[in-house]
């Protein structure tokens, strides 16, 4: 949000603020006067608040508003993390929608030498660059604001170091503001427990932007994937992806008390060492599939991954182990028997490509007939890349999932086919 937000406030309120309104009074007025729905601090219990927004949607304003709210309590230690130190100071701290602009008469002072903001009540906010992940080792905080997460070079490393430092007070919290990108780190962040997700389009904040800004960009990019990402704040899936983020986000639920049938699907590695062996457990009940576990292993010998499969089948009392036979054929059955697998083994053969096998499974997700009984970020990452032209590692987890759901829900059919007469 640009500095024009202040000009949108009634003159009487603006004069009152300039006359010396306190931070608490200013925050209350902002909350009741100018906050957009996606900028309002969630009332539900949360550990991480992720605000996905288009360019100019007011993400910085929301983060600065939250930090100023926290600064009301004396003696707090806060973290401000941006793509670079320059971004922290020029955008998050001193920008037209930054912390100082929203602080009223309780404006903190910036200490450049120590890279920190200091309030009169001894609350301090330290600035960190995402370029230096190790600088977050050691310090501890009551809360943190991470800005433009998707622009960080090593987002997960920086974020994990920040999380380890959130250990002060009764409820340390993290706010993440970013324009989204279709990246694995963001998908994993959104899938974590205790995370509340809000989103806001640039259009929602149009009254605080240059009059011709949106019209010009819509003329140039309207209807494109770039517009969906940069103006609407949406996670744009990889070209050709079968599984959509919104379908996976809705596929959350509890495991039923009983299941009609449970299978363990295995996508064996192509080589003896190094490749992953996809191992996914799925159950069926009342016309729905329930994903119970992802026990995929990497770097195991044939005997090593076979023993894992045997143990998983026993743990879940599986009725069947489904193993792709394209890699190894009958050798797969022999390995499982030698590993002590007492569960019946069915070898399945891939007569068609991965996309053809996955299409009917993706349709079940769209229909809400597949439930994930736990968080499976690595599996879901592979699912959203399945069928795309993007490179990357072999989707071993996703392949195993497709085999399991095909076997349970579609009787092994790989989708409709056309026969030439």
UniProtKB/TrEMBL annotation:
Lineage: superkingdom: Bacteria
Domain Terminase large subunit gp17-like C-terminal: 265-406
Keyword Methyltransferase: no
Classification via InterPro entries: P-loop_NTPase (IPR027417), Terminase_6C (IPR035421)
Pfam families to which the protein is assigned, alphabetical: Terminase_6C, Terminase_6N
The entry's keywords: Viral release from host cell
The name this protein goes by in its record: DNA-packaging protein
Organism: Brevundimonas vitisensis
């Amino acid at each position: 949000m640009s500095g024009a937000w202040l000009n949108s406030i009634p003159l009487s309120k603006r004069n009152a603020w300039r006359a010396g309104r306190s931070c608490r009074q200013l925050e209350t007025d902002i909350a009741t006067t100018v906050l957009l729905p996606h900028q309002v601090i969630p009332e539900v219990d949360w550990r991480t608040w992720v605000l996905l927004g288009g360019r100019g949607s007011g993400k910085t304003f929301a983060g600065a508003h939250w930090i100023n709210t926290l600064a009301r309590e004396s003696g707090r230690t806060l973290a401000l993390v941006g793509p670079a130190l320059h971004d922290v100071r020029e955008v998050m701290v001193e920008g037209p929608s930054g912390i100082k602009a929203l602080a009223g008469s309780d404006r903190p002072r910036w200490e450049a030498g120590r890279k920190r903001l200091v309030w009169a009540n001894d609350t301090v906010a330290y600035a960190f660059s995402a370029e230096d992940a190790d600088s977050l080792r050691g310090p501890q905080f009551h809360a943190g604001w991470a800005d433009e997460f998707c622009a960080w070079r090593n987002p997960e490393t920086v974020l994990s170091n920040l999380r380890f430092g959130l250990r002060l007070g009764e409820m340390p919290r993290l706010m993440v503001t970013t324009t989204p990108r279709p990246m694995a780190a963001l998908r994993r962040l959104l899938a974590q427990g205790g995370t509340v997700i809000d989103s806001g389009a640039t259009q929602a904040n149009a009254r605080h932007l240059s009059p011709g800004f949106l019209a010009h960009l819509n003329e140039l990019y309207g209807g494109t994937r770039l517009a969906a990402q940069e103006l609407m704040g949406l996670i744009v899936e990889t070209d050709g992806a079968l599984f959509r983020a919104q379908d996976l986000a809705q596929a959350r639920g509890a495991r039923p008390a009983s299941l009609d049938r449970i299978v363990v699907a295995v996508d064996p590695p192509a080589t003896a060492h190094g490749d992953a062996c996809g191992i996914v457990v799925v159950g069926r009940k009342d016309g729905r599939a329930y994903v119970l576990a992802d026990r995929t292993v990497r770097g195991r010998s044939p005997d090593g991954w076979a023993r894992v499969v045997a143990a998983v089948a026993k743990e879940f009392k599986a009725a069947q182990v489904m193993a792709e036979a394209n890699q190894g054929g009958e050798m797969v059955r022999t390995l499982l028997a030698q590993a002590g697998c007492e569960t019946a083994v069915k070898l399945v053969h891939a007569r068609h490509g991965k996309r053809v096998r996955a299409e009917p499974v993706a349709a079940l997700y769209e229909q809400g007939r597949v439930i994930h009984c736990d968080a499976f970020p690595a599996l879901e990452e592979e699912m959203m890349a399945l069928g795309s032209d993007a490179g990357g590692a072999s989707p071993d987890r996703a392949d195993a999932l497709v085999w399991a759901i095909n076997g349970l829900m579609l009787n092994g059919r790989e989708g409709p086919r056309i026969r030439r007469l």
